[in-house]
Amino acid sequence: MKPSSWALYFLLPLVLLACAIACGRSTSSSSSPPAVTWTDSSSGLTWQVTPFANTMDWADATSYCQNLALDGGGWRLPTISELRTAIRGCVQTETGGSCGVTDACPDAGAPCDSASCSGCANGAGPGATCYAPAEFADPCYAAWSSSTAVGDEHSAWYVDFTRGYVAVNAEAASGYGTNFPYVRCVR
Fold first, then answer.
1. pLDDT per residue over 150-178, tens digit each?
2. Which residues, other chains included, contact 47 with Cβ-Cβ below 8 Å and sequence gap of 6+?
3. CA 88, CA 93: separation in Å to the nearest integer?
4. Cα separation of 161 and 135, whole Å?
5. What is the C-alpha separation between 139 and 71, in angstroms, rounded?
6. Is pTM beyond 0.90 here?
7. Domain boundaries in the chain?
């Protein structure tokens, strides 16, 4: 081993440690890493804390969740009823609210989809922000559900947590473009 290689492998960690101490950064490993999952005590569902970084169509979202190995795997795309359990502070779209869209009533129209599914004021959820649990990273994202919309061919339900609304979106690219929701998996 060359002398310069020896210095790189053995002295560099000591230099970095000294720098961390001098800069006032903690060198202990006692702090916990950020949570990657969160279990909602009210629903019993375990959620992926940070959604995938990009939007994707519904088929890719379904596949992404099925193949997600995060924290031992077992993930899937949530149903619309499950996704609605994550809405906070928008009474009409929270579980049991006047928005009738559920797993049992997935129609894209009356009697399920109504004006009450349009959500609440933009960004006025708990803490003057989104209508999602505080435990979610990037809580304002819209997220796909696994529930397809009856009566709106090739569309699926999603929740937009910016306003807490429940709506349908085309499952794949169409004449309306590719403005797809994000993906937050559940198990």
1. 998 889 999 999 999 999 998 886 544 46
2. 37, 38, 39, 40, 86, 133, 135, 136, 184, 185, 186
3. 9
4. 13
5. 20
6. no
7. 35-170
